[in-house]
Design goal:
With 134 residues, this protein is of the alpha+beta class. The protein contains 3 helices and 6 strands. 40% of the residues lie in helices and 25% in strands.
Length: 134
């Protein structure tokens, strides 16, 4: 049996996306416990929504992650969920620190994001790249 593909009902697929999120104003906030909490929260979100985090790493002002997802999911929705839930969590836990960084409450990530679908051939290369961030 070919384990490279996910199967669900009558679907057979292997969808992976490399996503990069950048902090608002490129503030270098992703260090120490905040970086660890962001990574853990993204893992928790992935588990809750049925995504699989293949690799994840942060570097001062941005985070990279390689994610496997279902055919019924949209990348823009995945990014929206990750941004909303991590922002809410970080403001709840680090509100006093973040309020000194951002004049407008409840922001953490910049408006945009980078997303790139990957083929199976380059998966290991991207995973190694992400793991070597930071």
């Amino acid at each position: 049996m070919d384990n490279r593909y996910n199967r669900h009902n009558r679907r057979k697929y292997n969808l992976k996306v490399h996503i990069v999120l950048v902090t608002k104003y490129r503030k270098q906030l992703l260090k120490d416990s905040i970086a660890d909490d962001v990574k853990q929260k993204i893992f928790d979100i992935a588990n809750a929504y049925g995504y699989e985090i293949i690799a994840i790493e942060t570097d001062k002002d941005h985070t990279h992650f390689l994610l496997s997802y279902d055919t019924t999911d949209k990348v823009c929705d995945i990014v929206k969920i990750v941004k909303q839930e991590t922002t809410y969590y970080l403001w709840h836990k680090y509100g006093s620190l973040l309020s000194k960084q951002y004049w407008k409450k409840k922001i953490f990530w910049s408006d945009g994001y980078f997303a790139c679908s990957i083929g199976e051939v380059s998966s290991a290369t991207i995973q190694k790249y992400i793991e070597n961030q930071g």
